[in-house]
Amino acid sequence: MHPEIPDFNQAEPRSQWAARWRDELTLNVLPWWQRQIFDAEGRVLGARGNDGQPREAPRSAVLGTRLLWAFASAQHRLGATAEGGRAAHRAWAWLNQALIDPVDGGVFWSVDGDGRPLQPHKQTYAQAFAIYALCACHAWQAKDDSPALRQALGFFELLQAHAFDPADGGCWEGRMRDWRPLASARLSDKEPPAPKTMNTMLHVLEALTELLRHHRVPAVEARLRELLALFLDRIWLPGQACFGLYFSADWRVLTPDVSWGHDIETAWLLVRAADVLADAALQARTRTLAVQVADAVLARGVAPDGSVLGEGRFDGSVTDERRHWWCQAEAVVGFWDAWQWGGDSRHAQAAWRAWRYIDRHHVDRAGGDWFKTLDPQGRPLDSVPKAGPWECPYHHVRAGLEMIERLAPAS
């Protein structure tokens, strides 16, 4: 074992790492977001740069829903604080007053600073994150029949009615404001046209996992089983040892692109879904796959310094050498998850090395929070804001919460 890598079979290194994660969340990450993402009236800002200065940008549903998820989850899982409670209430109000469509339901893709719709269409990805955030809000509100849970179930019904493909399964990428079909619903201009994507499917699966955890509804369970089967049988490409990213309506893979960050993230989320379903056969399949995915990402998507690369192709070539914060955060959880199920020390070591890269390069000790995107030499790219339409606290807060809980002594 490398001298810098602790022996995680021992309790002390695990407790020390858990304490470091707790400090990172409570002393650096969460305070920055609680203080920096709202204006004086409590509205969500569009963006802030690495220099701490506000930038003008649309107020995206991605940012708004993930803020609510992060603040509510921290209140529930780390312990309530006054500042955290104010932030969670502000994010809850922003969702209800600005992002939710009062006429046709669902959340808008983006609004302006006053909550007026800029892109009013209904991206399935955004509806999924609304469900995910509302489930966290329900846990924080600690009521059997909370307003947040009722809203989450309402969002699920909208997806049931408008987003799922009854012929070939899975979800369409988006719909118009009134839920009629939308010809092109890409998440960004960087993506190729595709009626279905792994990324959207993954976060619908994640949202339904949490909804089922809090409320056992047969229709939710059926959809979650369907999505999990699609990941195992269609989206996972065993010949390429990766998940496909972009698909036709009938699940033909459209590009040879690989996202190693998404691969390692998907692996542990599939395990989580199988665990919530409490299906022994699916648990066995997803845990086996988690180890296979970790091996594949470790072989092709991890740099010598332990960081996860941006993207590549089926042939192993790298097309994005930048280091993105979310890839590193997901690598910590995903590699650790694989070690928990497979017992291969290489995976625990990979989780630790990803963390060490984060700690040395992404964490902004002077300005707070993390730098979101770095060049191959580990230098922050100021063209990518610290907070923005896609730059949010979701991935690293979730990684911290997961690791604090996974590193805790067995009860």
TrEMBL record:
A Pfam family annotated for this UniProt entry: GlcNAc_2-epim
Domain of life: Bacteria
Coiled coil: none
Keywords associated with the record: Isomerase
Keyword Isomerase included in the entry's annotation: yes
Family as reported in the entry's similarity comment: Belongs to the N-acylglucosamine 2-epimerase family.
The protein's name: Mannobiose 2-epimerase
Organism of origin: Pelomonas aquatica
